[in-house]
Amino acid sequence: MSDAGEPCAVELGEVTPARSRHAGRRSAVELRDELLVVGTAAGDVLAYDRSTLDERWSAETRSESASVVSAASFGDGVAVGERGPEGRIRVYDAATGERRWTYDTAADVGTPQKESRFFLPFVADVASGGDRLYVAARRYERDGDRRSFSSAVYAFDVEGEAVWTYETDASPISIDADGRRLGIAYNRCPGAHQHGLVVLDAETGEVRWEWDPGTDGQRRVGDVSLVDDGAVVASHGDYRGYRLGRGGAEEWRVDVATPTTVGDETLYAYPNHAHATSEGVVFVTGNTYSTEGRETESLHPREHTAVGYTPDGERAWTASVGGFASELGTAGGRVAVPGAQHFRTRDADVHGLRLFGTDAGPETSLETDGVVTAVALDGEAFAAVEEPVVYHDDGAERGTYRVLLGTEERA
Q1: Can you give the C-alpha Rg of the chain in angstroms?
Q2: Distance of CA 29 to the CA centre of its chain
Q3: In a designed cystine with 338, which of 53, 123, 163, 375 is the match (CB 3.0 to 4.6 A)?
Q4: The domain containing residue 248 runs over which residues?
Q5: CA distance 219 to 235
Q6: Is residue 188 part of a domain?
Q7: Each residue of 44-70: pLDDT tens digit?
Q8: Which residues fall within 8 angstroms of residue 216, CB to CB, at 6 or more apart?
Q9: Would residue 411 count as lying in a domain?
Q10: Terminus-to-terminus CA distance in the chain, angstroms?
Q11: Element housing 109 (H / E)
């Protein structure tokens, strides 16, 4: 894997450093036309010229406790989603920064049970397809040992009108749109909704088909990537990856990070992300867990790993991604993976960004002092948000809150 070289950087101000364990997303980044757009932990949206990194415009939030956690280009604008009391969606004119419209998802998913980060309404993902903006929002609630979710998936037109809404009592974690269909991955299904994947008609919101790994417990699907005649999913239920055909028919499945004996422990890791093209499929895994509980002294051999497969499901390559990846940046057959905390080993030397080709594997890497938590990729450049981190057993603060912009030369 070659070195990406020294990127350009813009400081984003002060932010409380990340700690050993993940506290959830609080930043977002998007590349569009001549703009680099960043959503910050303070809830602001900042747009920079991609050539000079001069600021083009900025927009502040209307909430004191919201952060921007998702972003996508939408027509000639930019859409961002918040984690905050209102679970707000905001759409800005890309040229001027004028706010075109907003929508508060809390009106549908409910207001927070308490003013604590994980209880705040959360716009988990936004995606555009044609003249529609698709949004997945959720809210978490807890009553003793009982956990529950309320969620809504929307299609908005360019004026901000909700064309249709799909509501469940499950937790959507990612969506993928191709203009014809919208795929929704539900990572937890504790209630009546028991399908880890739902594929909707993008125009009408009607259900085309549903799929589930058929496993016990609440964990279901971590990510979905639509392909021409079906979908690829990362299964949280059985730690496998699936290629599904028309109507959800299983074409193949692979053991991505299934339970493995290490010493006297049985360990597994969740496949959290998936990206598929006609040339191949990539799955990216997360943290190690033990079947006996959350704590473990060992690591699963596929923890924090990108695994590439051929279109027929044959394993082609594997490579480390350093630490926990909160999302993927994708552009055609290429994938950018941000590397954040590795809370078990807390090895700061692995912080950074890694880029892969779905068919050939590792291409480029970028080392950072802090952790990389958000990423965007297009045919010309990559953008990444670096956040400072302090590990509990070290005490040293590494990195700063900034956005990095670079060009990637393939190896």
Answers
A1: 20
A2: 11
A3: 375
A4: 2-406
A5: 8
A6: yes
A7: 999 999 999 999 999 998 777 899 999
A8: none
A9: no
A10: 7
A11: helix 106-109
pLDDT category of residue 5 using cuts at 50, 70 and 90: low
Separate counts of helices (H) and strands (E) for the chain: 1, 36
Among the listed residues 207, 209, 211, the one whose alpha carbon sits nearest the alpha carbon of residue 220: 211
Label residue 408 by pLDDT band (50, 70, 90). low
Provide the residue count of the chain: 411
| Category of 292 on φ-ψ map: left (φ > 0), alpha (ψ -120 to 50) or beta | alpha
Could you give the number of structural domains in the chain? 1
Pairwise CA distance, residues 160 & 200, whole Å? 20
CATH of residue 26: 2.130.10.10
The one-letter code for the residue type at 154 is: Y
Residue with tokens 């993902």: 125
Q: List beta partners, residue 307.
A: 283, 318
Using the structure block, give the residue that is written with the tokens 């360019």. Answer: 158
Structure tokens at 389: 């981190």
Asked if residue 96 is part of any domain, the answer here is yes
d(CA 26, CA 42): 8
Find the range with the poorest average confidence among 111-125, 295-309, 363-377, 396-410. Answer: 396-410
Q: Which amino acid is at 320?
A: S
